[in-house]
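question for whoever is on the cluster today: can someone run the full assembly for these? two chains, 303 residues total. i dont have access anymore since they changed the login thing
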Amino acid sequence: MLDDTDRRILRHYQHAPTLGASDLAERAGVTSATCARRLERMQQEGVIRANRAVIDWRALGYEVEVSLRITLDKTQPRAFDEFIDAARDVPEVIEIQTFLGRVDLRLSVIARDMAHYQQLYRSAILTLPHIADIEALMHVARIKSDEVLPL
Amino acid sequence: MIELDTLDRLILREMVRDATQSASAIGRALGLSQPATWRRLQRLRDMGVIKGQRLELDHEKLGFGVSVFLGVKLATKGRVSLEDFERAVSAIPEVQTVEHILGLYDYRLRVVARDISDFERVLRRRIMTLPGVGDVEANVLLSEERRPGPIG
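^ ran it for u. tokens below:
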């Protein structure tokens, strides 16, 4: 299990994921060897899943981001699986989430501009299987996005 | 806007998979020299295509069993400043993301909690007491998948 030192390392690492092992060790107040050993153990145990680069889609010309909240036709027993499989084939879908609540699923879709979004919506989204209802929310701004856990 | 060629896309995909890889490791995997890989990586960073890194942790192993998305509608638009709401909501440690949206709701929040009763505590004590909060809709996250996006 994790002890206070592990949590301290993770706390610092979460806030500065680009740090190398020695800088991270210094911030967390442990030796480089301890830090490296604990990081390795937490990776092996699956506590740390990955350290991923974050892409700025706007820099690549994708100016529009839309959240599509989707309700599925649940009389179809394989509605979730078939919908998700088909959504995976749409490259502009960057996130697929499933929920317990008022909506079943949410897709994050990016597009170059509104015209591109319209075209995607008609040709790739509305054609996905088993949709009962769909609601679009347009992203205006990200106020907080660090996704840090309160460890 | 920056145009990417196939090698840039492959390098980006590698970095999204594991950003701790060295330029030489990525280069080896793609049959590209270390200096050439490094130059391309540097360009992707300089142009802001790679805007940072994110540590992906196993929430459950760290004791956070529940993630909930809240749609929040402000009750008294115009009377409460958006800045005040945004500042207050961003300061809550359990709130991981805050997005300003147009549509049914004004804001979408991602909240983590240890379990449902912990979530109830956060909702009652922290969220419902925010300035200007009106309707709140909660959807409990069951599964989540991040896709590579149009760089494949």
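summary bc i know u wont read the tokens: The beta strands of chain B are 50-57, 66-74, 95-102, 107-113, 133-146. Helices of chain B lie at 6-17, 23-30, 34-46, 82-90, 116-127.
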